[in-house]
């Protein structure tokens, strides 16, 4: 790639699950990548293979504090994403979303960088509309245990759109739905990691409630492709844009697929359904299809195979 095309790209939360895949893809596309992370949920293992690359830099930093750098693009992913992690220190979670967004927007404003926010389907809360289009305003409890994450992300979206209106920044907001793949946390309590770990260790698979609730899971490579397309879309497309897989499956079907692929002897057991557990969550991706020409391509079985291989390797290392 010519020097003129090589961009300096900042990825906050770059040592996390999605961030590490994004850093990898940006380097493969010929860019200069600066990964910023405070290692709250991310690990050096996720990016160890990138450290030898001269176009990759790693900075330990907490985004709730100001950061002065010169970059062309910013992907703001820093934020714990699973309930176990974001409820560990809820005040810090809100600070990360809100102060983190203010600092990264301030940075983008000063250096005139384009900036993308990793928002979430959780801004829709417990939705009363299925599937969820971007113009649905959501149904979020502002004082509940999930609010530090949901409301923090909603406020970050507000800041992105106010910096766009008030300061003319080029902003991009992606609303990411359930994503899975290698480098997910084995102990984050999410269904894909729980079921795979349980299957590989021949422990019972815990179906919460009847197991008839549905989710739609997007494989990480597809998701990263969507983030890159959004960042590179026309300047006037700020979003928000839903990125996720509209194909739904029940938790029983997911468990069965993982049992088949692992050949596990695990039994299926039922456990109580957590409070406020949505019966279904599914993105409407018409906007991403139309404006980004994007839709997920990796079938669940294929994505699960790579994810299982990753967890097998983790277990061998223990
Ligand atoms: P992750 O926990 O693996 O990654 C988050 C990263 O941010 C970690 O490396 C963590 O150490 C870092 N971090 C946290 N607080 C920080 C701070 N104050 N300063 C600097 N770094 C900090 O989670 P992920 O699944 O990769 O999620 C990445 C982003 O995507 C998050 O913003 C999350 O809200 C969003 N998202 C993810 C999903 C999903 O299904 N994985 C769905 C919706 C939205
Ligand atoms: N900021 C930063 N890096 C920069 C520029 C700004 O971290 O390169 C932070 C700075 O701490 C500030 C915040 O971003 O508090 C918002 O910046 P902005 O210029 O919008 O507002 P102000 O400086 O007026 O508070
Ligand atoms: N779930 C389950 N067993 C588990 C973990 C989760 O049946 O061991 C269910 C959970 O009740 C929910 C679905 O799987 O209905 C997805 O849960 P996850 O926490 O992964 O994501 P979210 O609820 O945020 O979509």
Automatic annotation (TrEMBL):
Task: List, in alphabetical order, the Gene Ontology terms for molecular function in this entry.
Answer: NAD+ binding; UDP-glucuronate decarboxylase activity
For this record, an example GO cellular component is: cytoplasm
List keywords of the entry alphabetically: Cytoplasm, Decarboxylase, Lyase, NAD
Q: Give the principal location in a single coarse category.
A: cytoplasm
Reported cofactor(s): NAD(+)
- Record-level GO BP terms: D-xylose metabolic process
Domain (NAD-dependent epimerase/dehydratase) ranges = 9-244
Q: Which residues form a coiled coil?
A: none
Q: Key word Lyase present in the record? A: yes
Keyword NAD among record annotations: yes
Q: Where is the protein localized?
A: Cytoplasm
In Swiss-Prot or TrEMBL terms, this protein is called NAD-dependent dehydratase
Which species does the entry assign this protein to? Lamprobacter modestohalophilus
């Amino acid at each position: 790639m010519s020097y003129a095309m090589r961009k300096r790209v900042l990825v906050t939360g770059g040592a996390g699950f999605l961030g590490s895949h994004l850093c990898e893809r940006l380097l493969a596309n010929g860019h200069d990548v600066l990964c910023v992370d405070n290692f709250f949920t991310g690990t050096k293992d996720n990016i160890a293979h990138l450290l030898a690359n001269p176009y990759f830099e790693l900075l330990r930093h907490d985004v709730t504090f100001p950061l002065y750098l010169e970059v062309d693009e910013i992907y703001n992913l820093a934020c714990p994403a699973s309930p176990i992690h974001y409820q560990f220190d809820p005040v810090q979670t809100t600070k990360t979303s809100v102060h983190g967004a203010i600092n990264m927007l301030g940075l983008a404003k000063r250096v005139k960088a384009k900036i993308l926010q990793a928002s979430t389907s959780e801004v829709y809360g417990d939705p009363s509309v299925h599937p969820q289009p971007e113009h649905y305003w959501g149904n979020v409890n502002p004082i509940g245990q999930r609010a530090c994450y949901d409301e923090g992300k909603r406020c970050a979206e507000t800041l992105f759109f106010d910096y766009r209106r008030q300061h003319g920044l080029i902003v991009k907001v992606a609303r990411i739905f359930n994503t899975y793949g290698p480098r997910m946390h084995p102990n984050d309590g999410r269904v894909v990691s729980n079921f795979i770990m349980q299957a590989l260790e021949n422990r019972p698979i815990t179906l919460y409630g009847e197991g008839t609730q549905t989710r739609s899971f997007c494989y990480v490579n597809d998701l990263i492709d969507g983030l890159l397309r959004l960042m590179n879309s026309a300047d006037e497309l700020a979003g928000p844009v839903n990125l996720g897989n509209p194909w739904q499956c029940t938790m029983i079907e997911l468990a069965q697929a993982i049992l088949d692929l692992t050949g596990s002897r695990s039994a299926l057991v039922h456990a109580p359904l957590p409070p406020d557990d949505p019966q279904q969550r599914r993105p409407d991706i018409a906007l991403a299809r139309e404006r980004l020409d994007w839709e997920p391509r990796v079938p669940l079985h294929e994505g699960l195979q790579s994810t299982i291989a990753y967890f097998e390797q983790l277990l061998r290392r223990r």
